[in-house]
Amino acid sequence: MSDEQAAERFNQARAAQAMAVLEDYAEMIGDLIEEMGEARITDIAGRMGVTHPTATKAVARLKRAGLVISRPYRGVFLTEEGAALATRVRARHRTVVDLLVAVGVPPETAELDAEGIEHHVSDTTLEAFEAFMAKAPTADRG
Q1: Letter string b/e over residues 6-19, b meaning 16 or more CB atoms within 10 A of that residue's CB
Q2: Are 130 and 141 within 8 A, CB to CB?
Q3: Does the predicted TM-score (pTM) go above 0.85?
Q4: Per-residue pLDDT tens listing for the chain (142 residues)
Q5: Which of 78, 95, 115 is the last residue in one of the domains?
Q6: Do 136 and 89 share a structural domain?
Q7: Residue 115 and residue 30: Cα distance in Å, rounded?
Q8: Of 19, 37, 95, 108, which alpha carbon lies 20 to 30 A from 117's?
Q9: 142 in Cβ contact with 105 (< 8 Å)
């Protein structure tokens, strides 16, 4: 593998990781809005286990990407695009968890493992997971 090919592979991996972080924040903001009607930076930071400045920077990235809007002294709200992203990520997460549980992974471990897998599994693989789960007996699901 050439240096250029290696560099491109690592660039793609870093871009995927950056997108995974945005997806996690969008999903968390959606969860907070569902639970509390809005997502405040303090709540986002607490749920994500990060500092207030880290959450603020992430929200700024989400704003630049057109995924959230924020209002002074109110909170952070998903745009239509952000809400769609949060819904997709949540569905991917659930599919991965269900598959892991179906193959014998304990539910708690499946939830933790799905946090990483959900961002990196291709649409083709996710469709295969869903097809497998559609055929799997429902008693095997967590």
Answers
A1: eeeeeeeeeeeeee
A2: no
A3: no
A4: 888 877 877 777 666 677 888 999 999 999 999 999 989 999 999 999 999 999 999 999 999 999 999 877 789 999 999 999 999 999 999 999 999 999 999 999 999 999 888 888 888 999 999 999 888 776 444 4
A5: 78
A6: yes
A7: 16
A8: 37
A9: no
